[in-house]
Specification:
By secondary structure, the protein is mainly alpha-helical. It is 79% helix and 0% strand. The protein has 17 helices and no strands. The relative contact order is 0.16.
Length: 396
Amino acid sequence: MAEQKVAPNRWLLLAISMFAQIAGTVFVNGAPFLIPYFHLVRGLSLVEAGTIAAAPLAGTMVSLVIWGFVVDRVGERTSMASGLAIVTFAAVGAALADSLVGLGAWFFVGGVGAASANSASGRVVVGWFPANRRGTAMGIRQTALPLGVGVAALLVPNLVDARGLMTTLLVVAGICAVATLLAVALIVDPPRPDRNEAAQLGQLDNPYRRDDRLWRIHLASALLVVPQFTVWTYMLVWLIDDKGWSTFAASALVASTQLVGAAGRIGAGWWSDQVGSRLGPMRTVAVVAAATMLTLGLLSGTPLAVALIVIATAVTVADNGLAFTAVAEIGGPYWSGRAMGLQNTGQYVASALVPPVVGALVAGRGYGFAFAAVALFPVLAVPLVPVRGERRADSV
């Protein structure tokens, strides 16, 4: 008899996948936490600072589908490790850049590399966990984004204040280098049927031609990411500039709220496993997000505003894991990489526009108006979530 291979520890793979996503997030989402430095120290306008902060988001946005194709073809380990190596190299390049244009270019390149972890780490999780635990597992994996933002919120603004931009970016490069080595050493690609078997099962067929569920989830998720990135991008500078908080106090609050957001993602994933639906909970989250952002905008000048923005950091991220899991299940083992790439592309298109556009709204009408205005986006997302057409895919 042939020796049966021992399956790797799925929880270890989940942990490494999370760390890979955290490392990429610290680089990509650390850039918005440089906005106070660029605006208040370097003298750039909010629109200029926001544009530089959007560069890594733009790099991620344009490369997500390509990385998804690479994952579908060559596997998760190779894709994740090579992408993280690019981020490491770009972080060093950004640290040594001698102009804002050069800095923005390296930020863009690093964003390209960071995109690899989105599809690759997601595929590791959905490939190794069964359907009845996949929502919870993906919810845990999706906490990498708020946790990465939390790490960036504590690390980037305080370190750049104390030691300057070069040291800050070299520290980020070190984090990404560790993630690269862990991916090379420990990630194991999940099993999937060979192409002949997959063809017989219809898993090679384009799921986008089957029905409109994926397109609707992509569009709804892009709309829902607008309030999420509005809060993430401008909470820090709002607390410092509008509320008079110190950099340390503001960054500590931003970091701590990411733990609340992480718990929200896990809870949403567990909820979806219990009710056997990803999209029903996603639609409920959209309704709550709209109400929260509108209330925050209307009460932004009151003592309740800080509590409301903390709630908003939790509510506005809770849909991500639900949508990502649904997309992976619908896409299947030979299309989920590209499907997750397209899913994230729509989100990053929206998120890359948030810093400069919301910055212009803040400059023209104030923070309260900007917070209330983005409540429109989750309202538009509610009817797009294809709850009635949901069918659980038990294998990917």
